[in-house]
Structures are given as structure tokens and as C-alpha cells.
Fold this sequence. Notes:
Number of helices: 8
Number of strands: 7
Distance between the termini: 28 Å
Helix content: 25-40%
Amino acid sequence: MSMILVVSGTGTEIGKTVVTAAVAAAARGRRVAVLKPAQTGLAPGEPGDAAEVARLAGSHVTAVELARFPEPLAPATAARRAGLVPVRPFEVAEAAEKLATEHELVLVEGAGGLLVRFDDEGGTLADAARLLSAPVLLVAPAGLGTLNATALTAEALANRGLSCRGVVIGSMPAEPDLASRCNIEDLPVAAGAPLLGAVPAGAGSLSGAAFAARAPGWLAPELGGTRDTR
């Protein structure tokens, strides 16, 4: 039986791609697809987030990108400025459902936060998750300010009837400060969902083999890992 999991974050540049890669790596032995609905800030031919997930996680991952816009902006804005057709939530849902017919796990990685607009009609990743009836894995930073952003995102999920699968820290410092240490206990309260892992800062610079070997240790068993998050 296949599963679709939407990976969102409380903001941008907080580790969604490396968390997606870690979940994909921990699912080795299963057929995994990663779907990036809208890649922004890259020219044609440059490797995007989906390709980076496949590089880090391993050859069992199929990487799919629906749309690409050159400027590093919200997808709706980037599409409009480039004069390109935006990607819409129903297209994301259709692509994910198609991948689910051939893969046991489909990871849909958003752009920016949960409510970043895909199109000028206001379609978001949350709308795609609702169409898919898929749970959302929330990626959050470790440090000061993360609790408010996490609580706001969790509230937005709840208000839309969406399930938060859990929260993963996207970039845990090797020497966490006081706020980061305290947030390990406080993030599950803010999210209203369990802490399911923490990916160390700099993990994305590892080789694919090293990343794939270490990834299960960063994640809880609920995500296929071996980390004790109690």
C-alpha cells in the first residue's frame, strides 16, 4: 500500500530538502518518489531540490519536478514575472496520485511555508494536501523564534482539517544554544504533534553514501528511522 506524505516548513531555507532526503533514505528497500511542485530560483538544467533528494538518499528515489521558475520568489510571483503558467494544487495532487500507483512512498516537498501561493487564485500546498487527504510533516528550525512559527503553521493545518504527522528539526547545530536545547522539548507542544527527528546542520554537504547511511539515526521509527525521540 502506498503512502503520500507532504513535507512543509515554517519558512524557507530551514532544511526541508535535507529532511525529505532523510525520510527517503530511511525508506531504502521501498520504491520512493519525491515530487517538487514548484522549483524557483534556478535556471533550466541546474539540479533542483528533487534531484538533490535523489543524490543524497540513493538510487531507489525517483525525482519529479512539475514546474520551474528562474527567480527566487514565491511560486505565484515567480511564474507571473516569468510569464509562465503556474502550477496549481489539483495538478500537484494528480501528479502525486499517479506516482503513488508505482511507488510505495511519495514525498511532496513544498516551496517555502505551508501557505505560500502557487497561483494568483491563492492555491497553496495546504490545498494540495487537502485534495490528497495526506498528512503533513512539518520542518522547523531549532533556534529562537521557531515556536511561534510552528504554532501558527500547526493552527493553519488544524483549521483546514489537515493532519500534522509530526515535526522534524531541519538543521540542528552541533553545539546548540539554550533556546535550541529547550525547543527540543517545546516544539512538540507548539506543533501539537510529536518530534520525529533532528537533522544535523551541514548534513546536505555529505556524500550520498554517507548521508544515506546516517539518515535513519536522525529520524524516529515513525519515519523509518532508529532515533529515540522520547
